């Protein structure tokens, strides 16, 4: 069992955001300011259609264009979130494969880097998707479940993150993470940058980024780097 993360760091921190929306531009700038790495899960087909939708609070949410995506995430991870964000339980095996494989290929062409990760849209996940992710050549597949702990997952193809950013316990959770002596403690926060507007969370997330950035025993990594370290 490994005792420390790369660079002899005791803990690992990551933020993983989905859907590739306009607010990512401001959010990536914030991560860069504090030296924090993000993993961004994108839908390559919706991106081409400049897809928009109306948030339940009435706010219009807009996808980033391929042109903006090309370099926005430099220094961060880009992962697949399917072509069109479908409910995967409604898809045939062939369509599941196409949604994952083609999205990976489209994103790799666009950003000119390997796309190693997959994050499932919505909250449906099963063995079929895990198998499909392996078949498509992903090194991990993220479910929509949370550990609500600092423990790491034991299965890269049923990857669970730590906590959802709208969780009312978020600030306490991060404070506990900064104080814990647990070996190989992981804190992975999941969400969407449009929530930062919709839920008025920009201030909370900036305070969290500023706080964690001050600790020199934390490894700031992408999800793919974390999985690669734990399983290889
Ligand atoms: Zn999504």
Commentary on this structure:
The chain is of the alpha/beta class. It has one domain (about 5-230): Glycoside hydrolase/deacetylase (TIM Barrel, Alpha-Beta Barrel), CATH 3.20.20.370. Helix content is about 40%, strand content about 20%. It is built from nine helices and eleven strands. The strands form three sheets. Strands 1, 2, 5, 9, 10 and 11 form a six-stranded parallel β-sheet that branches. Strands 6-7-8 form a three-stranded parallel β-sheet, sandwiched between helices. It has a two-stranded antiparallel sheet with strand order 3-4. α6 (about 170-180) links the parallel β9 (about 165) and β10. α4 (about 95-110) crosses α5 (about 125-135). It starts with 10 loop residues before the first strand and ends with a helix. The mean pLDDT is about 95. Bound molecules: zinc ion. Zinc ion binds near residues 18, 81, 85 and 121.
CATH architecture annotation name:
Alpha-Beta Barrel
**CATH C-level category:** Alpha Beta
Average pLDDT metric: 96
User: What is the CATH third-level topology name?
Assistant: TIM Barrel
Count every beta strand, where a strand is a DSSP E run of 2 or more residues: 11
Rg (C-alpha, Å):
17 Å
Summarize the structure.
With 232 residues, the chain is of the alpha/beta class.
Give short descriptive properties of this protein:
232 residues, alpha/beta, TIM Barrel, globular, binds zinc ion
